[in-house]
């Protein structure tokens, strides 16, 4: 039994991320005690299937002994090394090289961060520095996509296009602009992917023209919008956006914090579409949540402009924990596990997940089933033809999350009435079938 004092201590002292503080105090914390594979165990000893890999991050699954060993060995050998003063550590250098070898195109330079938000924030600084070094400091305007998520730092949260991250924070800044999402479910052109692509191209072109092409610094996009509700663009959409950016000399930044590391099938989702961004952010699956780490990939061209621009001067950007050796050792082992079978298993289980969820499409509450690989969503509606969202008394995300929890399933319940799925790549067929069966139970309870 979980001691009440722990719940009280949490209520009194721990500030939780992205939550209603008062709502959380009233509800109290749910403490997880242990985990293995794709299963988590709560404080009462109840086992649940983790259909969301923590926060779309534990791609390798829980209880991977070899990751624990790699971290322990590194902790004993060298728990910390700064990257300042020309210093470094072997795991960080090797991980950077291993990632560069696998990244799309010439994304050969890797800057390590602590997670996704500071990776995005670092790109904002690198973009600004790049244009300054190119002699075009007036290129200081940024464009991102509605319903996109790019983290929660002061800069990145303005590129994020979800109202809760702006209201009360004075965001977005006036240099942060948006174009509409492709959102295929609610897009009037959904029946015609070419029309969706053409409309987005037109909008991005108009946005760039409106700002003035010579003022636009960069365009940010997730290959699949995650926190916006797992919104998958039509094939060719990302490539078309990339082409518009290339045409106008605008830097193209792909945010692969969720989609990276096997989530959609290949190591990086950019590989699905054969595009090479100028910069790419990753986190989550990079270390599978066993230690905090993110990264920014810079193309050779972008890196060289920054390096030559700075010359003998320091590029004033860095964190105490950049390229942390323990996180890097974890990252190297995680990468070995992906390539040692987890990517293959993820692809097989991803197909099973997508097929299983498609079987739920005939449920009266399911308006849309979408996703790719081990990334999926159901959109709940009360009227399929009118695509009417669930009424307010049913919709609160906490209520849907509670129902899933009672059914033995951890999923993401978005406030828009969307269920999100991102199971560990190590999931078994039983895990995946369990996710689908338990989802049906939740849907029946919600009817
Ligand atoms: N970018 C994307 C696409 C994300 O989904 C997230 C987090 O979910 C972030 C950035 C921020 O990453 P973090 O939560 O590690 O700071």
Distance between the ends: 32 Å
User: How many domain modules?
Assistant: 2
CATH topology of the largest domain: Aspartate Aminotransferase, domain 2
Helical content band? 25-40%
The low-confidence parts are none
CA radius of gyration? 22 Å
Give me the strand/helix succession.
HHEEEHHHEHEHEHEHEHEEHHEEEHEEEH
Q: Sum up the overall morphology in one term.
A: globular
Alpha-beta content class: alpha/beta
Strand order of the largest sheet: 4-10-9-8-7-5-6
Describe this structure in words.
The structure is a single chain. The chain has 447 residues and is α/β, with parallel strands linked by helices. It folds into two domains: 4-64 and 341-446, Aspartate Aminotransferase, domain 1 (Alpha-Beta Complex); 66-337, Type I PLP-dependent aspartate aminotransferase-like (Major domain) (Aspartate Aminotransferase, domain 2, 3-Layer(aba) Sandwich). The chain has 14 helices and 16 strands. It has helices spanning 4-13, 21-27, 53-56, 65-77, 90-102, 116-133, 156-159, 193-211, 237-248, 270-273, 300-310, 325-358, 397-406, 429-446; strands spanning 32-36, 39-42, 47-50, 109-113, 141-145, 176-179, 216-221, 251-255, 279-282, 294-298, 366-372, 375-383, 388-389, 409-410, 412-414, 418-421. The strands form three sheets. The chain has a seven-stranded mixed beta sheet, sandwiched between helices. Strands 11, 12, 13, 15 and 16 form a five-stranded antiparallel beta sheet that branches. A four-stranded mixed beta sheet has the order 1-2-3-14. Helix 8 (193-211) packs parallel to helix 9 (237-248). The model has no long low-confidence stretch (mean pLDDT 96).
């Amino acid at each position: 039994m979980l001691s009440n004092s722990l719940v009280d201590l949490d209520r009194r002292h721990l500030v939780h991320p992205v939550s209603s503080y008062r709502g959380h105090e009233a509800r109290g914390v749910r403490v997880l005690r242990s985990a293995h594979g794709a299963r988590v165990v709560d404080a009462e000893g109840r086992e649940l299937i983790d259909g969301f890999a923590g926060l779309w991050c534990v791609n390798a699954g829980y209880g991977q002994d070899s990751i624990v060993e790699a971290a322990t060995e590194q902790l004993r050998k060298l728990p910390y090394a700064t990257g300042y003063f020309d210093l470094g550590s072997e795991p960080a250098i090797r991980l950077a090289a291993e990632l560069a070898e696998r990244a799309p195109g010439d994304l050969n330079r890797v800057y390590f961060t602590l997670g996704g938000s500071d990776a995005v924030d670092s790109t904002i600084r690198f973009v600004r520095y790049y244009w300054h070094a190119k002699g075009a400091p007036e290129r200081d305007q940024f464009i991102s996509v509605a319903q996109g998520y790019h983290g929660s730092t002061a800069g990145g949260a303005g590129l994020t296009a979800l109202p809760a991250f702006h209201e009360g924070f004075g965001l977005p800044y006036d240099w942060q602009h948006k174009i509409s999402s492709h959102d295929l479910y609610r897009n009037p052109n959904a029946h015609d992917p070419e029309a969706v692509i053409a409309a987005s191209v037109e909008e991005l072109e108009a946005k760039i023209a409106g700002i003035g092409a010579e003022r636009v610094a960069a365009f940010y996009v997730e290959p699949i919008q995650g926190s916006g509700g797992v919104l998958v663009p039509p094939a060719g959409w990302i490539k078309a956006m990339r082409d518009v950016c290339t045409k106008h000399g605008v830097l193209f930044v792909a945010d692969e914090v969720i989609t990276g590391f096997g989530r959609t099938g290949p190591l990086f989702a950019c590989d699905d579409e054969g595009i090479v961004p100028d910069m790419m952010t990753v986190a989550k699956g990079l270390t599978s949540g066993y230690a905090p780490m993110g990264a920014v990939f810079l193309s050779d061209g972008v890196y060289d402009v920054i390096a030559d621009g700075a010359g003998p001067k320091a590029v004033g950007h860095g964190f105490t924990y950049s390229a942390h050796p323990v996180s890097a050792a974890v990252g190297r082992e995680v990468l070995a596990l992906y390539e040692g079978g987890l990517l293959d298993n993820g692809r097989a289980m991803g197909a099973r997940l997508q097929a299983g969820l498609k079987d739920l499409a005939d449920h009266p509450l399911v308006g849309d089933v979408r996703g790719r690989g081990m990334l999926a969503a159901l959109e709940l509606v009360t009227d399929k033809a009118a695509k009417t969202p669930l009424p307010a008394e049913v919709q609160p995300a906490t209520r849907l999350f509670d129902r899933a929890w009672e059914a033995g399933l951890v999923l993401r319940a978005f406030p828009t009435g969307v269920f999100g799925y991102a199971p560990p790549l190590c999931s078994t067929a039983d895990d995946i079938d369990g996710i689908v069966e338990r989802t049906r139970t939740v849907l029946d309870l919600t009817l």
